[in-house]
Design brief:
The structure is a single chain. This protein is an alpha/beta fold. The protein folds into two domains: 7-179 and 368-381, 3-Layer(aba) Sandwich (Rossmann fold), CATH 3.40.50.2000; 188-363, Glycogen Phosphorylase B (Rossmann fold), CATH 3.40.50. The chain has helices spanning 18-30, 47-54, 71-88, 98-111, 131-145, 156-164, 188-198, 219-229, 245-257, 276-279, 297-305, 335-347, 349-363, 369-381; strands at residues 7-16, 36-45, 58-61, 92-96, 115-120, 150-154, 173-176, 205-210, 234-239, 266-271, 285-288, 309-312, 328-330. A seven-stranded parallel β-sheet has the order 3-2-1-4-5-6-7, sandwiched between helices. Strands 10-9-8-11-12-13 form a six-stranded parallel β-sheet, with helices on both faces. It is globular and about 65 Å long. The two termini are 19 Å apart.
Length: 384
């Protein structure tokens, strides 16, 4: 009796970077190699490209697959995807992020791919857009939902929004979490090692954030909150790069040099790093100032490390940050309230420690690679 051939999966993502790229890579890497073969198709990427290669995954770069809307590049990317899917006879096309989700799903349908899966890490529409723009994005996603066999939503908040907006039939929606590696808890030893790695004094109060320097992540609100803290002993750390790096660097310099009383905080822009879980213990408070999100990997990693969290109340963040229990939530675009919540935890270390311990206990055993593997296996095979 002949052995069944592995299911051929194409994982398509605009850029293999950030939280979406990390989850896409974790998913491809988690699959049982005896049952699946995974190919990553992306327009660009960062260190995750090297990690994918080291994991033995096939990675195909299609430069025309870019984030900005550009009809010429988009048409080239679409044609390239149609050709690739038709020639390689993939059994599953799994798209991530908005641009790849549009081009990849339509190309997969045109090429006759048997199964189409899409992951919403968040949405291409949000409250900070005009009503017309938001409506157009919702209409596009509803049309795409009709050709999508399974929609995976990163976090309950994202899944609820997909149902509420009628983006896809309810029976084809699944909720998934991020996959994070275990790290040692926040201890004096891990704290000191992390601070040495960042060049931060052992006695400083450290407020940290992790994410790409983009409009979505609102790094300017992080800087404004630090300035409004009124705590000269605070060091603010942002880990991550992105298209706003130059502008945020100049703004951080102005904040650090601003006159007034009390003196301004010190700000460290640490750039891209490969050791994020290992430097999280350097933080006394983890801050997430995003305008919109799915379920950020960095928040879960901070909780697993035992770092108290202050975050904006957007999308699926509330899955893990329960106000007053596992952290504090504030509205987006309110750096004054972000500063007040950070100050509250810095001034009350026992309360912060209680919330961090509760958060760590509640996520214990969750967000594992095994959990992700099981979800993807069901999504790709239909439970066969």
């Amino acid at each position: 009796m002949s052995r069944r051939q592995p299911v051929r999966v194409a994982t398509v993502i605009t850029r293999l970077e950030g939280g979406a790229g990390t989850l896409a890579l974790h998913g491809a890497r988690a699959l049982d190699r005896g049952e699946f073969t995974a190919t990553i198709v992306t327009g660009s990427g960062d260190r995750l490209l090297d990690e994918a290669a080291q994991a033995g995954l096939e990675v195909l770069i299609e430069p025309a697959l870019r984030r900005p809307v550009d009809p010429r590049s988009d048409l080239r990317a679409f044609r390239a995807l149609c050709t690739l899917f038709a020639h390689r006879n993939f059994d599953v096309v799994h798209t991530h992020t908005a641009k790849a989700g549009v081009l990849g799903r339509i190309a997969a349908q045109r090429a006759g791919v048997p199964r189409i899966v899409h992951t919403y890490h968040g949405f291409p529409f949000h409250e900070f857009q005009s009503r017309a723009q938001r409506g157009a994005y919702v209409a596009i996603e509803r049309r795409l939902g009709r050709i999508t066999d399974i929609t995976l939503c990163v976090g309950t908040g994202v899944a609820v929004e997909a149902v509420r907006r009628e983006l896809v039939a309810p029976q084809r929606i699944r909720t998934i979490g991020v996959a994070v590696d275990f790290r040692s808890p926040h201890t004096p030893q891990t704290r000191d090692r992390a601070r040495r790695a960042l060049g931060i004094p052992a006695g400083a109060a450290v407020v940290g954030a992790v994410g790409r320097l983009t409009y979505q992540k609102a790094p300017e609100d992080f800087l404004a909150a630090l300035r409004q803290l009124g705590r000269p002993d605070v060091v603010g750390v942002w880990v991550g790069g992105g298209e706003l790096a130059g502008r945020i660097g100049r703004l951080a310099e102005r904040v650090s040099r601003s006159a007034g009383s009390p003196p301004p905080p010190r700000i460290v822009l640490a750039g891209e790093r490969t050791d994020v879980p290992d430097i999280l213990p350097a933080f006394d408070v983890f801050a997430l100032p995003s305008r919109y999100e799915g379920l950020p990997t960095a928040v879960v990693e901070a909780m697993r490390c035992g770092v108290p969290v202050v975050a904006t109340a957007v999308n699926a963040v509330g899955d893990v940050v329960v106000p007053g229990e596992t952290g504090l939530l504030v509205p987006p675009e309110r750096p004054d309230l972000l500063a007040a919540a950070i100050r509250y935890l810095l001034d009350r270390p026992s309360v912060a420690a209680r919330m961090a311990a509760t958060a760590r206990a509640r996520i214990d055993g969750r967000f594992s690679t095994a959990e992700l593997r099981e979800t993807l296996t069901e999504a790709y095979t239909g439970g066969r």
